[in-house]
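[09:14] KT: can someone run the structure on this one? pasting the chain below
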Amino acid sequence: MSGPTLVAGIGNVFLGDDGFGVETVRALSAHPLPDGVEVVDFGVRGVHLAYQLLDGYDTLVLVDAAARGGAPGTLYLIEPDGAAPVEPGGAALDGHHMSPDTVLALLGTLCAGTGSTPPRRTLVVGCEPATTEEGIGLSGPVAAAVPQAVRMLLDLLRPQSPEDEDDRPCRELRSTP
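[09:31] RB: done, structure tokens below
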């Protein structure tokens, strides 16, 4: 990736596997990262994430639990194709219940009001949860996926030539443990 990059761990550590993003960015933080990469545990603070993005990042990588119907612990790399842009003005400001879509909608509103530019590229590294019921700690399959997610992120963050990035098609990749 080129340009400033924000890797954002999101999720609620009090809801079991919803804490995947938080645990993954904690583990990622122990590794040396390329210049221009910032890793932040946002947890459930979606409003803070939206405001942080006003600082001008080229790429946003969200790390979160992602229920998509796979086996628990399945990792997903999702690169939205941009066919359905998030419309500014539609964000509900509830700091404790902001989904990534709501954060991006709020960001659109904030950028429109401040003249800032949203990230050029957004990726999601997600993990299929086993449970998101009340409780602290990840289930076995999701905990086992954390080191694999860290490897996936390190591969994504490795510097590449600009031609490699621009020519890559939008896609969704599934990787099962």
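[09:33] KT: thanks! Confidence is low (pLDDT under 50) at residues 83-96, 165-177.
[09:34] RB: yep, looked fine to me
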